[in-house]
Design a protein that fits this description.
By secondary structure, the protein is α+β, with helices and mostly antiparallel strands.
Length: about 280
């Protein structure tokens, strides 16, 4: 009996479809719980996030954050002493939009936790994006085949995303136009970063392949320390050396250099240094 149940379980998993393959009006989608839908679309459900690191949060309401900074400065206390007066046990409220967490309530707690390098308790996460729509949109951006019966419920996605898909393909084709000796390393690096998804989520552009190196630009207004240029080099140890740069006119400022990065660490290192979310 146990073996029969195990076989049935395996067959069910094989038959289980991705969210973007399910029509919004279909029975399979209707029978899914809200938590299941959210986890498939975003990787977590609204109530799954209980604690979070300040480094993963973004500011939506700048006035509220600046008010917290102002209060600390006017308190006459050092940052650390002021931060210790803030009750970090009280949870904060977050929203999640386009792959990023934003603070909705709790800017003083966020600022204090950031100073003390402590985690924050989370009361709730409000999803600003519709999960089913998000799953389909991401699938289109990544070049996955979305069934026509699913797309007919969202005709607005076809024209909206086609331009973005073509732009991404154009960027990848530019890398493919270089000599094979240059292309192989650059294409492999891009694949390890996440390919189409990486480009779509970071706004990376102007890719250049040069032997064992790949370079590209980022929108500096979205990154930590205004990093807007990254060079990734495959070294003799078969690991990567990464240089994070702020390039402004003819002025070049190296923000940080990280050596000996393994391929499975590329995404996390770049995400940590730039503050950009590379996955949902």
């Amino acid at each position: 009996m146990k073996k029969v149940l195990e076989i049935k379980s395996r067959l069910y998993k094989l038959e289980e479809k991705e969210l973007y393959e399910l029509p919004a009006t279909g029975r399979e989608y209707a029978e899914m719980s809200i938590d299941e839908v959210e986890r498939k679309a975003f990787g977590f459900a609204e109530d799954d996030i209980k604690i979070i690191e300040p480094s993963k949060l973004n500011i939506r309401w700048k006035d509220d954050y600046e008010n917290a900074v102002y209060k600390q400065e006017k308190s006459g206390l050092s940052k650390e002493d002021w931060a210790k007066t803030v009750d970090l046990s009280e949870p904060i409220q977050l929203s999640y939009e386009k792959g990023k967490f934003y603070i909705e309530d709790g800017h003083h707690r966020y600022y204090a936790a950031k100073i003390l390098n402590k985690e924050l308790n989370v009361n709730e996460v409000d999803f600003k994006d519709k999960p089913h729509l998000t799953a389909i949109e991401n699938a289109l951006i990544e070049g996955k085949e979305v069934p026509e019966e699913v797309l007919k419920d969202y005709p607005q996605l076809i024209n909206k995303n086609m331009k973005k898909v073509l732009e991404i393909k154009s960027k990848i084709e530019k890398i493919s136009e270089v000599d094979k000796s240059d292309k192989s390393v650059a294409v492999e690096i891009l694949n390890q970063l996440g390919g189409n998804r990486f480009i779509a989520m970071t706004g990376a552009r102007n890719f250049v392949a040069d032997g064992n190196r790949m370079m590209f630009k980022l929108p500096g207004t979205m990154t930590k320390n205004r990093i807007n240029y990254i060079t990734i080099t495959l070294n003799s140890m078969d690991t990567y050396d990464i240089k994070f740069v702020n390039l402004r006119g003819d002025k070049i400022k190296v923000i940080e250099e990280v050596s000996g990065v393994y391929n499975d660490m590329l995404q996390s290192v770049i995400s940590d240094r730039t503050g950009l979310a590379l996955s949902l």
